[in-house]
TrEMBL record:
SUPFAM superfamilies assigned: Ribokinase-like (SSF53613), YjeF N-terminal domain-like (SSF64153)
Named cofactor requirement(s): Mg(2+); K(+)
Protein's name according to its UniProt entry: ADP-dependent (S)-NAD(P)H-hydrate dehydratase
Transmembrane segments: none
One BP term from GO: metabolite repair
Molecular-function annotations in GO: ADP-dependent NAD(P)H-hydrate dehydratase activity; ATP binding; metal ion binding; NAD(P)HX epimerase activity
Gene from which the chain derives: nnrD
Reactions performed catalytically: (6R)-NADPHX = (6S)-NADPHX; (6R)-NADHX = (6S)-NADHX; (6S)-NADPHX + ADP = AMP + phosphate + NADPH + H(+); (6S)-NADHX + ADP = AMP + phosphate + NADH + H(+)
Subunit structure: Homotetramer.
């Protein structure tokens, strides 16, 4: 963000980015709390400056109180707020006026935050939560650190967060993300580089879903060929086929080592054995079977977009895997990168980017927050869902869904985002502890409802 802002300042030295940021904050404040007093809590830096200029705009129309938590704040902002009629209060005054406030604007710390809050501010943040007064945070809930998902100490819990130009890691990575409330990404004329972070929304998934056209046949829909499951994990084969068929594969071919009778009893439309296909799924439920390398190399010969899951991830060919989708969870990603699981959990963005850049494949990192990185560095977050899907077998279903989407022609990153999102959406629409096969059975109705309004 700082580099992107510098580009704007170099091009246009007099640009008033703070004025634009403050105007966006004031606009959202007016939308979420149209009347009543506003209490603006101000820190020592430019985040406080945004808050003070927003206070000045709001004070034209309604009572505004300003608490300078460090005793001072952005000088020009302070002058503007004063002139517009805002009233300065101290820590005691801030706590007293809380009960009569319709909204608190948290402009204590932003990009410059080292994490945590000074004691008086931490106490105030708790009081906001106890009094159930909604908090609108400027850029990020103060106390968080912009490029981290961890909670370094006390922080505000926002109902709304207005951030600028692009999402930051703290907005999307748990547990920090849950402190941000509803996110508003304001355009203040700062262009962020392409290697950025985006959050997919339900409407994107509906739009990107490969709904069959009037003339589509099973080959146009996409044939997915699955080498999944093993003697030890026969269920994984069934779950991947369930994912593939319930998300609309034109045909599922099964080439793995699980008895065909078992597959056909559950999924009679499955075709057993190799044949024409548009995408492959490998690895789910292989366990530590011998011959993984050979099977992955064999898949490579098909020259098809491939989903690589679970144990197949450890037998990746050395060459660039353009068009492939790797689907590790944190533990698998850690093993692939030679680091610890806790390192991946603390730095998911850089880790998922590293594997994508290094392999040439798109990488879907599964977990509470699901990230899809492209080799370019761009990361797209899947739509979030309830934690009910954190269950053995969900990943197998997901691999099957992603195989169907690759076979339908979606690029690997998009197949990862759409697959992970549709599973989350299905779980959100069917709350409760559904086992993964039963949730897979709910995919058709979820997809039908999702795409109904999307114009086919
Ligand atoms: N750079 C720009 O051009 C723009 C910046 N904007 C705003 O400016 C913010 C960044 O401003 P700053 O760089 O001044 O940084 P901040 O306003 O986040 O705060 C920096 C100050 O807080 C202190 N601090 C950090 N962590 C602390 C802690 N835990 N406890 C107590 N004090 C702590 C630092 O020592 C420093 O004095 C952005 O978040 C955004 O709100 C916007 O106005 C848009 C344009
Ligand atoms: K803030």
């Amino acid at each position: 963000m700082r580099a992107a802002e510098q580009v704007v300042f170099d091009r246009e030295p007099d640009v008033d980015l703070m004025g634009r940021a403050a105007a966006e904050v004031a606009r959202v404040a007016a939308a979420v709390a149209p009347e009543g007093a506003v209490l603006v809590v101000v820190g020592p830096g430019n985040n406080g400056g945004d808050g003070l200029f927003a206070a000045a705009l709001l004070a034209e129309h309604r009572p505004v109180f300003v608490w300078l938590t460090g005793g001072s704040g952005h000088a020009a902002g302070r002058e503007a707020a004063r002139r517009a009629g805002a009233t300065e209060v101290d820590a005691v005054g801030a706590l007293q006026s809380l009960a009569d406030s319709a909204l608190v604007i948290d402009a204590v710390l932003g990009l410059g935050s080292r994490g945590g809050l000074p004691l008086a501010v931490a106490t105030f943040a708790e009081a906001c939560a106890a009094a159930a007064v909604p908090v609108l945070s400027v850029d990020l809930p103060s106390g968080l650190v912009a490029d981290q998902g961890l909670l370094p100490g006390a922080s505000f819990s926002a109902a709304h967060t207005v951030t600028f130009a692009a999402l930051k890691a703290c907005h999307v990575q748990e547990p920090a993300a849950s402190r941000c409330g509803r996110l508003h990404v304001a355009d203040i004329g700062v262009d962020v580089p392409a290697a950025t972070l985006r959050q997919a929304e339900e409407s994107d998934i509906a739009r990107w879903w490969p709904t069959p056209g009037a003339t589509s046949d099973k080959y146009a829909r996409g044939v997915v060929m699955l080498d999944t499951g093993s003697e030890h994990y026969p269920g994984a084969a069934l779950l991947t086929v369930a994912g593939a068929l319930n998300s609309g594969a034109g045909m599922a071919r099964y080439t793995g080592r699980v008895a065909s009778g078992l597959i056909l009893t559950r999924f009679p439309s499955t075709v057993i054995g190799e044949g024409r296909a548009q995408a492959l799924v490998l690895g789910s439920g292989w366990g530590e079977t011998d011959g993984a390398e050979g099977r992955v190399a064999n898949a490579r010969l098909h020259a098809l977009p491939t989903v690589v899951d679970a144990d197949a991830l450890y037998s990746l060919p050395e060459e660039r895997l353009d068009g492939w989708l790797l689907t590790p969870h944190a533990g698998e990603l850690a093993r692939l990168l030679g680091c610890t699981r806790s390192h991946v959990e603390a730095h998911p963005l850089s880790c998922v980017r590293e594997l994508a850049r290094h392999s040439g494949a798109a990488v879907l990192l599964k977990g509470a927050t699901q990230f899809v990185a492209e080799p370019s560095g761009r990361v797209t977050l899947a739509v979030a869902g309830p934690a009910w899907t954190a269950q053995a077998g969900s990943g197998d279903v997901l691999a099957g869904i992603c195989g169907t989407l690759l076979a339908a022609g979606l690029p690997a990153w998009q197949a990862g985002v759409v697959g992970a999102s549709v599973q989350a959406i299905a779980a959100a629409r069917n709350p409760g502890p559904y086992p993964p096969d039963q949730l897979a059975a709910r995919l058709p109705e979820t997809i039908a409802a999702l795409t109904a309004g999307a114009g086919g």
